[in-house]
Amino acid sequence: MKKLPLSFYLRDDVVAIAKDLLGKVLATNFNGEYTSGRIVETEAYAGELDKASHASKGRTERTEIMFGEGGRAYVYLCYGIHQMFNIVTAKEGVAHAVLIRAVEPLEGKDIMLQRTGKKKWDDNITSGPGRLGKAFGFHTLQCGLSLQSKELFVADDGFVVKKEDLLSSPRIGVDYAGEHAEWHYRFYLEGSKYVSGKKK
């Protein structure tokens, strides 16, 4: 398993990065608790011109991290409950980001169960960004953490995504973005039982 280099995240095309992240392995190692999972669903957010993006309102205390160099975590709190994990991409000054919406759990399932408070395993445990954030131990305190660190990284283990299995749809929960809500910036692997929301 090879950690993705910084150059992977510094590309200008956030849509291409969101697609290329599918099939890769997300790993966290917070407080000595290692968890990993294969990324099966992502959403691209294209900076200040994208009305669905937090960056559309410009630089704020919350979005400052998005305007920094790519390859870092942007973790924000949604509805005061969910810790949402995003990957900042592109070069400094370009506020692109990819939301990781769902993964297929690989390692650390016992830790995920403990974090989520579930007694029995089910396929929804990492299905959706809020659930994923909880299972993988994300917190806003990790905002800005490098994906080149020992605590957080994405790796390539040789898994190949077939073109016919890579599907797209409008993003979920961004109706406020008007016509931008219709952009097919959500990508997922067909057939994965861990994908959240509507499949088509």
TrEMBL record:
DNA-binding found in the keyword field: no
CDD domains: AAG
Enzyme class: hydrolase
Keywords: DNA damage, DNA repair, Glycosidase, Hydrolase
Enzyme Commission designation: 3.2.2.-
A Pfam family per the record: Pur_DNA_glyco
InterPro entries reported in the protein's UniProt record: Formyl_transferase-like_C_sf, MPG, MPG_sf
Single Gene Ontology BP annotation: base-excision repair
Superkingdom of the organism of origin: Bacteria
GO molecular function: alkylbase DNA N-glycosylase activity; DNA binding
Membership in a protein family: Belongs to the DNA glycosylase MPG family.
Full protein name: Putative 3-methyladenine DNA glycosylase
Organism: Flavisolibacter ginsenosidimutans
